[in-house]
Specification:
With 360 residues, this protein is of the alpha/beta class. Helix content is 35%, strand content 18%. The chain has an 8-stranded mixed sheet with strand order 3-4-2-1-5-7-8-6, sandwiched between helices.
């Protein structure tokens, strides 16, 4: 485990709720005290917290026949107030100011909007205010929802150039089988050279959360590939964050690769946001994958699909349709179509805004 200066801590709904679905206020207070301990040591912390729906469900009784989407929106809207008030009260007793940030996936799609959000979070941290981030469940519809708060936490860690992403769940990490089986062993370290481990992971989801361990693994791998160390640990455990600070925590640790540029971190999470597709020839493909850093020029483009504007995310494919990476358009699809195959043209994707997949 490496030292940490800027950490995103995600607390899952299964950590903040008891087995009967009632919010676990003692657990919440215990974690708040430990987060405050990390801040007191000089660490910058951003908290991504689930639990709004559980808080809403506890206080608002709704008819059984009500549309499930409406139920979720009502519980999220009412519960978010209770959740943030609870945090404000607990942190307030320790003299720690907090701020609420509610986001949707759309906020990460546009580079300008993304940078505005990044600047806001950084300003809060500079003033010693703890940002508490959650998805704005009341306005999101299925297609625009985060897979769950693990994805939101992963995006937030990439946005802030955090060195650590800590995912707190109700088990110690990833096991070689179902965690409750005595033969299952905890996988304590995942290095970038290790083979895929999805065969070990139970696909079951928690009762109160939207995602499962498979989501955590996928998001952890992506973050580690971007140079962020990721820890999956048990938030129900006493002193979990104290042990993290001492580097004695029983957990699954994902070893980070070399840190990627900030813009490439944004692009790495853009697989669902791209507006157009660019198909390139073999010459351009070998040029992009060479050790020399190169931009994508129109001369290497075979065809373009979709309409896009300057600043939109593009998916790059080879002649056979294989996904190669993601990039930011330097100009519109209208101009790009006019320049396909032509030499001496401005790059459609500058290398600073090109993220190539390791394997796809």
């Amino acid at each position: 485990m490496l030292d940490s200066k800027v950490a995103v801590i995600k607390i899952g709904s299964n950590v903040l709720t008891q087995s009967n679905g009632i919010p676990d206020l003692d657990r919440m207070a215990h974690l708040v005290a430990q987060i405050q301990g990390l801040i007191a040591k000089g660490k910058k912390i951003v908290l991504v917290s689930s639990g709004a729906v559980a808080f809403g469900r506890e206080s608002i009784a709704l008819p059984e026949k009500l549309n499930p989407v409406f139920k979720k929106q009502i519980w999220a809207a009412t519960g978010q107030i209770k959740l943030i008030n609870q945090y404000q009260d607990l942190f307030g007793k320790l003299g720690q100011p907090v701020a609420q940030i509610l986001v949707t996936k759309e906020d990460f799609r546009d580079r300008k909007h993304f940078l505005n959000m990044k600047n806001c979070l950084e300003a809060l941290l500079q003033q010693g205010i703890l940002p508490i981030v959650n998805e704005n469940d009341t306005v999101t519809i299925t297609e625009l929802m985060f897979t769950d708060n693990d994805e939101l936490a992963s995006l937030t860690a990439a946005m802030l150039n955090a060195d650590t992403l800590l995912l707190l769940t109700n088990v110690d990490g990833i096991f070689t089988g179902p965690p409750y089986e005595p033969d299952s062993e905890l996988i304590e370290r995942v290095s970038s050279s290790m083979p895929e481990m999805t065969q070990y992971i139970s696909a079951t989801k928690s009762s109160f959360g939207r995602g499962g361990m498979l989501t955590k693994y996928a998001m952890a791998k992506k973050s580690a590939d971007l140079g962020i160390q990721v820890i999956i640990a048990n938030g129900k455990k006493e002193g979990v964050l104290e042990e993290f600070a001492k580097k004695s925590l029983r957990c699954t640790w994902f070893e980070p690769k070399k840190v990627k540029q900030a813009a490439k971190k944004w692009l790495a999470h853009g697989a669902q946001y791209y507006k157009g597709e660019v198909f390139i020839n073999e010459g351009a493909k070998s040029s992009l994958s060479s050790s020399v850093i190169r931009s994508l020029l129109p001369v290497g483009i075979i065809r373009i699909e979709g309409e896009f504007s300057k600043g939109d995310i593009l998916l790059v494919r080879d002649e056979n349709g294989r996904k190669l990476g993601l990039g930011r358009a330097e100009y519109s699809s209208k101009l790009a179509l006019e320049r396909i195959g032509l030499k001496n043209q401005k790059a459609l994707i500058h290398y600073d805004y090109l993220y190539l997949f390791d394997h796809e």
